[in-house]
Design brief:
Helix content is 76%, strand content 0%. The chain has six helices and no strands. Helix 1 packs antiparallel against helix 2 and helix 1 runs antiparallel to helix 6 (169-192).
Amino acid sequence: MDSRIRKTGAMCGVIAPIFAFACILSAVTFWSQFSWADNALSDLGVQPGITAIVFNVGLVVSGLLFLVFAAGLFMLMRRQVLGKVGAVIFALSCIALIGIGVFNESYSPTHYQVSVAFFVLFPISLFVLSAALWRLRQRGFGVFTLGVALVAAAVWVLEFTLHYVPNVAVPEFVSGLAGAVWMETLSVRVLKTPPNSAKS
């Protein structure tokens, strides 16, 4: 059963980022006035017609798939307390992502709160997981996870200190893309690992 949960979570970890970014980029193409410099991605969620539907449904569905990935991650870390904590924090970030899709910019201040929660909790979960992986002697992947966490956090630190773009679409996209690369990499590793040799 544990192996099945891990494998199912890993399959969702492969599918979900692709689905999420396909929906985001599709929504961008549907709204011709979108500007990477001057908009937030969440602006897509309040545009009339297909744009908002594709964006918001994409976030909700991918967030649910991410939760399945988080369940697999929890099982992968089931004998490592720090790893389980990281998986729980990651799951909370997934719930926040779903909240972004459910509570668009029309729902103030809830939208802002869930957006901040997602972009804060996600890198925190990776920082915790990188420490757990190091303790599990998976140091190569632990360093990779730490690097992804630093990228996901740095784009926001630089935005608030240097203000390198007028709005937040770029840091949102880069942070999300870093997370997608991490999820895809871990998911492929899990899928390639025989059940009886999986580390936990």
